[in-house]
Amino acid sequence: MLKLTKRTEYGLIALVHLADQATLAPAGEPVPVVSARAIGDLFPVPRRLLAEALKQLQQDGIVNSTRGAHGGYRLSRAATEISLGEVISSLEGEPSLTSCAGLGAAGSNHSCEVEPVCPIRSPLARLRTGIWTLFEGITLQSLTDRAIDPNALFAGVAEENDGFSATG
Amino acid sequence: MLKLTKRTEYGLIALVHLADQATLAPAGEPVPVVSARAIGDLFPVPRRLLAEALKQLQQDGIVNSTRGAHGGYRLSRAATEISLGEVISSLEGEPSLTSCAGLGAAGSNHSCEVEPVCPIRSPLARLRTGIWTLFEGITLQSLTDRAIDPNALFAGVAEENDGFSATG
DNA sequence: CCAATTGGCACTAATCTAGAGCTAATCGAA
DNA sequence: TTCGATTAGCTCTAGATTAGTGCCAATTGG
After folding, report:
1. Which of A117, A105, A154, A56 has the alpha carbon at shortest distance from B132?
2. Nearest to A159 by CA among A129, A119, A115
3. Which one, A28, A103, A114, B54, has least CB within 10 Å?
4. CA dist., res. A143 & res. A13, Å (int)
5. DSSP A74
6. Nucleotide nearest to B37 (CA to C1')
7. pLDDT single digits (tens) A86-112
8. Nearest Cβ partner for B134 among A6, A114, A134
9. pLDDT tens digit string along A18-72?
């Protein structure tokens, strides 16, 4: 199915909340730390899965974590510097769209039997890149804005993307 | 996972092949009929699943089927008149992206507990629409072209979409 | 009648998802 | 030091989804 996992939803909810909190903080100061428990109290989502999502986001450098009492999470960067693509890549892996194609379309070393004659690999690879570019062009900040201009979501889509530096 | 199902892959392979065959036919004549067996002989994909995908496409009016000996499938329309969105919608349902949101964002009658406070529903609903619009703007014909201009894939993305007429 | 084909139903096995349980490590405060 | 709150890591289970197969009916042409 072409659907995000719950983990990704929960992670996005947490990130949007963290972005909100960061906005409220005075500039110059480090953004406030919010615990998974606090987020779980605000939104009716299972705390454990919320914590798992946040842990994953921490491992991929999207949030910083502080352990111990009064610990929690905060965005590692400004919300304008975090792309939806980066978040989705962290929480559910790179969207491959088809089973055969990893993102490295050039040095494909996988075992797709169809490849030599597959009539859709190349077109779908580009489509995949297109969706990915769409995600890359959407910042966490733009998700935070409640009343969003739909066209703003597509900024960057028409531009070519030559790498996925946010992932590795 | 943000991935198409095998059924969709197989269906797309079949459709691209059917589009190729239709291109070879002289204009004015009905396009040739290709059996699932023939497609299964060309591409190393399970025939049964190929047939299932084609059956689904038939039920949604994307291909026409002929039963009996020398039966098979052919595109119901020109490849330029079949959108990728229509195909994906047929083969794996409307891409909902999040678990809560059906496409009818207005009269949402579902049971998402997060909804009253969900900070991502509205933005992701627009993102979903964006992806859908992306799919709608890609024709089967453009998938058939082997060397495709990446930017061509994004035609129609920046335009607003007020309906999903291709689906029903 | 016979062979080829689509159409429909049920079934199994593998994979993925959602969620919970448990424990260790870390930190602040009493 | 002791204790509570928190993140971090691991395993486990149940459910849903996906991939694939089997079987047979209906249709069509020879």
Report:
1. A154
2. A129
3. A28
4. 10
5. E
6. C5
7. 999 999 877 666 666 543 333 344 456
8. A134
9. 999 988 877 777 778 999 999 999 988 899 999 999 999 999 999 999 999 999 9
pLDDT in tens, A132-149: 888 888 899 988 875 444
Distance from CA of A119 to the nearest CA of B (A): 6
User: How do the residues of chain B divide into helix, strand and coil, expressed in percent and rounded to 5?
Assistant: 50, 10, 45
Q: Class of the B6-154 domain?
A: mainly alpha
B88: Cα within 13 Å, side-chain hemisphere: 27
Q: Which residue has 């979501």 as its token pair?
A: A153
Spell out, as residue ranges, where chain B has pLDDT lower than 50.
102-110, 147-168
Distance from CA of B38 to the nearest CA of A (A): 14
Residues present in chain A in total: 168
The predicted pLDDT at position B130 comes to: 78
CB atoms within 10 A of CB B150: 15
Q: With CB atoms and an 8 Å threshold, state whether B42 touches A117.
A: yes
- Residue with nearest Cα to nucleotide D7 C1': A67
- Indicate the residue type of A75: L
Tokens of B144: 């058939």
Contact B143 A150 (CB under 8 A): no
Beta bridge partners of A139: A83
pLDDT given at position B133: 84
> Which amino acid type is present at position A52?
E
Q: What is the share, in percent, of chain A residues with pLDDT greater than 90?
A: 41
* Backbone conformation region of residue A165, classed left if phi is above 0, alpha if psi is from -120 to 50, else beta: alpha
Dihedral (CA of B139, B145, B146, B149) sign? negative
Helix axes B47-59, B84-92, angle to 10 degrees: 110
Separation between the CA of B149 and the C1’ of C19 (whole angstroms): 44
A6-30: per-residue pLDDT in tens? 899 999 999 999 999 988 877 777 7
